[in-house]
Amino acid sequence: MKCLHRGQMDYSSEESDIGESELDEYKDKPYEQLQAGKLKVKINGTLSCPFCAGKKKQDYKYKDLLQHASGVAKGSANRSGKQKANHLALAKYLEIDLASEMDQGQPLVVTPVIPTEEQEDMYVWPWMGIIVNLVAEEAASLHGDHFLQKFSRYKPLEVHTFLNEQEVVSEAIVTFNNDWNGFMNATEFEKAFETEHHGKKDWSAQKLHPGTSIYGWCARADDYVSRGAIGEFLRMQGKLRTISGIVQEVSRVVAKLAIKIDMTNENLDQLHYKYNEKTMSLTRMLEEKDRLHSVFVEETRNLQRYARHSVQRILEEQEKLSYELETRKRKLDNRSKELNKREAMTEPEKQKLDDERKKLASMEQRKADENVLRLVEEQKREKEDALNKILQLEKQLDAKQKLEMDIEELKGKLQVMKHLGDDDDAAVQAKMQEMTSELEEKIEDLENLV
């Protein structure tokens, strides 16, 4: 543990950070330190992350530690370049130098066959069977379908016959599936010939006097390197493998696939969470829109009621002024009649009375007209102010809703590109940077609008 902390301290004294383009170059130094033992991954039989000492859990299984290293190496933008390079080196070290530490308890897709001593021979893979001592004339008259039907119980894929006009006998190769079921079928194919004493050993013993029976066995290393059409075909179509080697390779591939599946499932869970979060946000946005619409409708109704009340008030005042004017007219008429009755009234007095009456009537009419105009202008101005206020509210509501929808759409696209995009693709990174800048501008516009 003391060595671990010293290596961590020495390594943390490097430059503060690096760019994304330098990750592959920078990971070589921590990888060399891991190989040299300056940075310890396995301590007292326990796997731990030397770059997260004291911060994260330090009791990992092989699969979990590899997933941790890969996840940080391909992490989000808030991870520093140095952290990504360190964990990229750790993932490389686990895959190459600590592959033997792979957790044997993880589930595999296939069930490997436990190899016996005989099965440790070098087989030709994909699995193939060899048939010899076919009579040339008989083989030439038969098609591949005949042999496929004859050996159908072993589920062969193809049968290739090799005819030689100069030879009395011919040969054939039977190909099987390249999985474990194909190996079992090839083994049963070989055992069937051995049971009838027509296997490879029997052919070697009776080669000079084989009779008319056919012989067969699974293709192995000596067949692979042999001369003739059989050897050429095996070298062209297959390669030599051991059972244990195939088991180890399949185990490594399955382990990597299992890790990738786990990471994909985790990313899908995160996307599902983000989807639910966006759905809830959209629901709240729609509820806010409905609330603002209700407020808008209520404000419109209030303005309509106010307009009706103003018109009613103006009509009532106009009616009141008309009544007062009519009353004064009647008084003036009565006075005029009284004056006319006076016989001693002079002509100048009559003219003065008429002028006074006309002047009074004109003043009253002008006053009534001014009041009506003033009330009409006041109602018109109040109505225009209310309509302007409604239009302004509508514009603000539309602008706010559009910005919120654009922001949510940009956030969703960024999340999808982060989880499913290629971090090494410069074009994808540039597009994400452009979308991030656009998102920040829209958030700032929304804050200014509010």
Protein architecture, described:
This protein has 450 residues and is an alpha+beta fold. The chain folds into three domains: 2-101, no CATH class; 122-241, XS domain (Alpha-Beta Plaits), CATH 3.30.70.2890; 253-449. It is built from 14 helices and eight strands. It has helices at 2-11, 23-26, 28-36, 62-73, 81-96, 136-140, 144-150, 180-195, 200-205, 221-224, 229-237, 243-341, 347-420, 426-449, and strands spanning 42-43, 46-47, 123-125, 128-135, 158-162, 169-175, 215-218, 239-241. The strands form three sheets. The chain has a four-stranded antiparallel sheet with strand order 5-6-4-7, sandwiched between helices. A two-stranded antiparallel sheet has the order 1-2. β1 (42-43) and β2 (46-47) form a beta hairpin. α4 (62-73) runs antiparallel to α5 (81-96) and α4 packs across α12 (243-341). The longest helix has 99 residues, at 243-341. The radius of gyration is 49 Å and the shape is elongated. The two termini are 55 Å apart. The relative contact order is 0.06. Residues 1-16 and 103-120 have low confidence and may be disordered. Residues 1-21, 334-356 are annotated as: Disordered. InterPro entries: FDM1-5/IDN2, XS_domain, XS_domain_sf, Znf-XS_domain. One of its GO terms (biological process) is gene silencing by siRNA-directed DNA methylation.
